[in-house]
Amino acid sequence: MTGPSRGLPDPLHESRGASSAASTATLAEGTPRRRRRRQSGALERHLSNVIDVEEASRLVECSQIQRQLRFQQLVRRYISQILYGCSNPYCTTPTCLSCKKRLTSKPFRAPTQLTARALAHFLASQDDPHTGLCPNQLKVSPSALEIEGAGGVEILKGEGGKGSTCNVYPAPRPPLAASAGISTCPGSSTSTAKRDGHDKSSGKGEVDKIWTTLGDRHQAKKDVRSLGQNLFDTATVVYSYSKQIPSALSVFNSLRSLRTPRQKVSVTEQHHDSGMTVVKQRHVDSSSAEATGHANGHTVQPRVSGCPAPTAVAPPHSLRSQRSHPKTSSAHIMPEILSNGHRIHRIRHHLPDSLSNGQAPLKIQDTAPFDGTQERPPSYNSKMKRKPLSLDLNYTPKADPPIISLLTANQDDRNEKASEPMGLILPVASHLDCQIMDQLKDEVYHHRNQQSSDFTFVVDYDTNARFRPAKPFVNRSLFFTFSDPETLLKSFCDSDNNAYKHSPLPHLNSTRLTHTFRDWNRRNGALLFDSLWIALNALFVPPPELDVQKSPRLRAAGRSPSLNGSASYSSTPSNSEAPSGRYLSDKEAAHIVMICIHALTSLVPVGWPHSWVQVRKFRSWGIILPDAPPHTDFTDGFSHPLLNTIDELEYEPALRLAGRLVRGIGARACFEDILVSLGHREDDDGWGPMQRGRSELMRILVRHLEEVEHLAVANKMKMKTKLNYDEDPGWTVTATFIEWLRTIIIKKWNGKAEVNRWGNVGAAIRILFDFYDNRESLNLRTNMFHIPYLNEHLDLVKEPMKFLSRGPTINSFHLLQCPFLFTPRDLVAHFRTINFTRMYKQFEETERAMHLQRELDPFLREPYWWLIRSRLKVTFTDYLVLDVRREHALEDTLNQLWGQEKRLLMKPLKVKMGQQEGEVGLDQGGVTYEFFRVVLSEAFNPDKGMFTIDPQTRMTWFHPATVEPPRKFELLGVLFSLAIYNGITLPVTFPLAFYKYLLGIIPTTVNDIRDGWPALAKSFDQLLSWEDGDVADVFLRSYTFSYESFGTNIDVDMQEFERVGPEKNVGWLNNPSQQHMTKVVGSDNQHDPEKEASMVTNSNREQFVKDYILWLTLKSVEVQLRAFRKGFLSCIHGTSLDLFEPGSLQALIEGSQEVSVSALKAATHYEEGYHAAHPIILDFWSIVQKYDNDDRKKLLEFVTATDRVPVTGFETMNFCIVRNGGDSEMLPTSSTCFGKLMLPEYKGKEKLEEKLALAIQNCKGFGVV
């Protein structure tokens, strides 16, 4: 156990070595001794899979340098074009100074250094940073922004003098002084003696020169309150793009040279102050004394202890170096005198085919920036087709900047024995597994004094963490494995993994991976996520079939800006910008994807289920941090449980990885869609217009995650936890990954309803749908997919109508095609917006026609007006009016709806009911509700022979042997369509299978009939799960579909029916009641008493259940269903139904039959002296609270004319209690059109209860009681 961190040592002091660290760490007498830390290098010797790094691209330091160098070049070029402009006077790049001068009116104000610096960093940090670059030749080369002597890399000795580390973010120090061991930190005031003949004053002068140059680039007038100036005007920011960064390959060779054999050579040094010439013997690395090349074409000059080696006495070369390089000509030797008087000779060499140490040249796996996008040249602007500029063919790359080594000659002598080649130079683990990862977690610096102040492997770490950052061997091993897809495929393969034997990835133990990936960000920051980011490049490699299909015309010829300031022309894109490597199989890709998922999900703390409910709720609205009282005192170590979860979900390196992972999965799906369109693969059943079908990669991921969640639920049940997981599952792998997907959608969405199918948002939504389709097996909840943030930023009027008019597209989809992203309330709002917009369009046409009539009235006579009104009767009608009698409501309704034009049906509905019987009722909404209740109760009466009602569930279903013609069912469908079109909740109860058919879904599973036929579903469950013998001997069930028709039992042989064919039984389908038979046999449907239906056995029971459900929900009532659906679509646009699922459509039509008194009370209003605390109101609610659900429904029907709660809740209903005088013998009355209950102020609770019960039990008709 270690104490709290004391923070980093003061950078102005010299770093402590291994010996000083050990002496400082000595415990005082009486202090408890801590656990002994493993000796340095113990893990390397303990592991059996340790190898040497032989490629610079596989070393973490080289990757960091390469990334830093790319960003620095971008910033430099942006600063150059912003401050100085380009040579083209007709430039059209908005950020170029030449363009601004041409477009800006006089007087022109040039940008300042600070403005250019801030804008350059912003543009270089974008997802596609190359789009803003000027394609013309710049006036000032970006390399001119360098500060001479500002080193960009330092080579350090490892712990105990063994190994080496690399500081990629060093403080400004001159190369010569640093190599001499002089403290050169800026502002240092320590005084040391002369070392190796060098005076400290020369090194200090170099530092002063660097600081002077940095000071010249500061803003002249600085606003102390400006955040931008305080950030981008600091020395750190200026130094980041001004320092000299060497190539990754030169750093790689320098790291390896620290372990190569040394030779003593003579070095001639001439002191500038005294003029004396001193010849010294120094240890020189044979490998570092020769020039080497690297990726960008620079050369690395010979160095002695990290400094340029003087060439007065040439060091001897090894035989290998003599064979590798030709003889150097004296013309290439360029003497140079430094500011301190020392003379060095730079020797330029041609770039060798292979390195001197036998290593292959640097291979950059991925030149894309670490922001999650591929770099590409900007598109060529057609407006700039002018005479091309002359190419800078004489451009000569400058030599590599020096790599500073903080080891003096004396230190080299002391550590010479330890530096002898004793095995591996840059050891790493060849692959990783869960056990090795757990061992690597222990390889950390347990105390700040054990590491150097220049240790920079960790960029972001928690200073309050229990453990200190990881050691170089750990970081190099992690990067070596996680950055390479091939090595990653060999890692985490568990042969003994019986728990996941049913998974498509049986070798991947996700249970152990969940714990293995935890807390790595506290040890090495973003290294794990950045490494996986590089490995995900393999997901973008297209399959071989697509490489064959490529056309040369697709290779766009363009003009791309180079980072050295000159304009370059290329006919084809750079190969380094395209994904390289082989095409991975779906299982291999799933292996890499699952490792990334575990890295992302394990980053987020587990927390508590109730805290996850809050996190998911406010993050779905786009809120990062909820409004809570500030907590500024963290001395007690307490932080809100939500803060840790929020911080990790906003962790930038993890967000980059999540975005690239989502795009990689989308790219694989895109490849599959292209292969399907080209005919290389078979099409699959998709999930609508969004995609052709689910990709095989997603099938593997979903099946594996199902196993992961199944085992997680089983473990929770074994633990017998008391936590409530019904509302929210808490932290699970899939649920946490969904939070990453929702975060990507909210952050990357551009605010438009049309979404690119293959981008971040589109790919994340595709993944969410696959999870939503399997939410039960993945232990997910429906509300976890809702993102109200999207609905809040959509145009709620225009977008629903655009959704109706858009056609199918290949590369994009509309957000409303993804209803699982919206809450039920939002979906109902969009649906009713569509209907009311279409209704208002019809109303506008009537108004325009009426206006035209008024304008033409003075010019036309009556006979002509009579002809015009007769032909424009529908046009001049404002409403669809139905005048029916209460006793013959169904008959009158069907007669009036028959033959009506569709445009009349789309007008607002008004009902007159019972006026011929003397009822007084003005339709303001309440009469319409009463009308549908009366008409549908008569239509659904089983005595009519059109529908049946299940005695157990009271659900309505079509009669399979009805004698009514199909037109009546079509008219009932029109009646349903009118109700939904006008926003009426219907008092009906249909099973879920009915709404599935309306949406075009065919029920085939037992769950599809469980709500409508629970007894039948239970018997099917027993039939399918029976294991004690053959079901034919136990259940004695024949392969027939049975139903009752007017007291007669009818059995249909389903197998024989399919064998003969539906076309041979068309008479039975048209009128099943005329075929009272026990079997369907033969082409002429003759009854054969000798032939019996086959029995249901273990082999065919699954198919029997599917066939029976299909017959029950479709085939036996197919004629009625088709006619009903045809009428149902008369007013409803078919595309608008895509907003709903069967359950949500059922809630829209039927509402809810459960009346909550507390919810109703909260939504109630009071008038005429009543209020919530009035005694009569308190007695009223106490009486209603005692009612059962049936009496509550009667009360609701008495006041609002409907006993159903709409899908939008009580908030959208009018329920108002109005004082109707003092105490009297009158019964309570209501105005259903306005939802008002006229309640007299009775004296006594008993009288109120008696009068109210009498009123709600007799609530038929309209008038005065």
Tell me what the structure shows.
The structure is a single chain. The chain has 1265 residues and is of the alpha+beta class. Helix content is 39%, strand content 9%. It is built from 47 helices and 27 strands. A hairpin with a 5-residue loop joins strand 10 and strand 11. Helix 15 packs parallel to helix 19 and helix 19 packs parallel to helix 24.
Fold blueprint:
Elements (H helix, E strand, L loop, with lengths): L17 H7 L17 H5 L3 E3 L7 H24 L13 H7 L9 H12 L29 E4 L6 E4 L7 H5 L20 H17 L10 H6 L2 H8 L5 H10 L4 E9 L6 E9 L6 E2 L5 E2 L2 E2 L2 E2 L10 H6 L8 E5 L5 E5 L56 E2 L3 H6 L1 H4 L7 E3 L4 H8 L30 H11 L2 H6 L19 H7 L4 H4 L2 H9 L8 H6 L8 E4 L5 E4 L15 H18 L5 H11 L21 H9 L2 H27 L17 H24 L13 H16 L5 E3 L3 H14 L14 H5 L5 H8 L6 E3 L9 H33 L5 H10 L8 E5 L4 H9 L4 H4 L3 E5 L12 H14 L7 E3 L6 E3 L7 H16 L10 H7 L15 H12 L5 H4 L5 E6 L2 E6 H7 L5 H5 L30 H13 L4 H11 L13 H9 L6 H6 L2 E3 L7 H11 L3 H12 L15 E4 L9 E3 L4 E4 L5 H13 L8
Parallel strand pairs: 2-12, 18-19, 24-25, 25-27
Antiparallel strand pairs: 1-13, 2-3, 4-5, 6-7, 8-9, 10-11, 14-15, 16-17, 20-21, 22-23, 26-27
